[in-house]
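Deliverable D4.2, example record:
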Amino acid sequence: MRQQDSGVGTVLANEDAGYHKGLKPRQIQMIAIGGAIGTGLFLGAGGRLNTAGPSLVLVYALCGFFAFLVLRALGELIMHRPTSGSFVSYAREFYGEKMAFAAGWMYWLNWAMTSVADVTAVALYMNFFKAYVPWLAGIDQWMFALGALILVLAMNMLSVKVFGEMEFWFSVVKVLALVTFLAVGIWFVVTGTPIDGHVPGFATITEFGGFFPNGVLPALIVMQGVVFAYASIELIGTTAGETEDPRKVMPRAIRTVVLRLIVFYVGSVLLLSLLLPHTAYVSGQSPFVTFFGRIGVQGADVIMNLVVLTAVISSLNAGLYSTGRILHSMAVSGSAPAALARMNRAGVPYGGIAVTAAVTVLGVALNAVVPAAAFEIALNVAALGIITAWGTIVLCQLKLWHLSRKGAIARPEFRMFGAPATGVLTLGFLAAVVVLMAFDYPIGTYTVASLVVIIPALVAGWFVMRGRIARIAAEQGRDRDHLDLS
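Output generated by the structure prediction step:
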């Protein structure tokens, strides 16, 4: 059996060494629910509603379905072998070091760019308060971005218990905010109470161009932004290595998160489409802030802006957490420099976190140079990383299914339904998103074109690091024949 012969168990044991099992079931539940409720919905939905109109509801539903399939595939892998290395470890187990190297660095790119998008979102949210706090008007956008990064970096260097507690309450705030919005929004629709002179209801869709006011293509092109909105559902895989009894906790978390995410995402976007015309929403402002700013309740938009500010800080916090663990996993196996495996006494892999924070500083610079486009640029590049991550998860599940058919491995009871057809369908969807991204000129087109730089960089990095990978494998007693170091 390949995973035994290649000594993957030894690698996984080394990956999890030093971590503190500090995450509690309630924290895992809320991280699973709230972790994926972040910048993509709270900020990105505004511009996408303006572009795609109410058809964005259909796009969210479609992407939500495939996000659900990815989460089920990841759940099966977690039940097979829980590890803090998440799908990077599974890529190593089922496909070898090359796949793990590429998947790990692309996932790091995703979260590094997500961090850039997050600090940009913080800056945009803070711009909102300039109308209420005069002295903020003299502060440039990049300074808000830098301040957010310093704050979250300091918090992330603490223990995993602190991280878990912060994310728990961040998630509580996000979920309560969305529940409040759904309740208030439904009341306006049901009662027909005018909003800034407009009567909400289905006429909001039919009288302003229907579901596709700008055509079908704009709805398809925004799909990569919606995929980004669902990004971080895979974070639950990373938390498995720092959870007591993950095989009991994880299935429950995965089962509960899917329905709730569909309700929050699809339900929120549908309600936003019923409340105001799609032209009322604008890029750079949260659609929730737009709504609460028009209902005539003094300070409602300010409160919602504080909520979405909390959400984006949560996302940035989760990004630093995730990349720190992924880079630690890669460093232990040799795919990343040894310094990234270092931990402090609290069991925090500070080396990897610091590297991601350093790259996020480039996002601060982006906010200084092109503040208007910084968010969209970061979002598109991050989408490439998340598509790679999701694709890797599905490929690993397909490999597990294949090995189980041969009798080389036993599938866990919690598994990807409809395999392998659902896995192949998901891979086709992810490929289609990349193609559609190329039509989103100019940012999406240039993002796909950046693969011309990213792929050679990964190849060059592999040749630089493969000697270290071979050396560490020998020290761990792993069979070199299974490493594929060509």
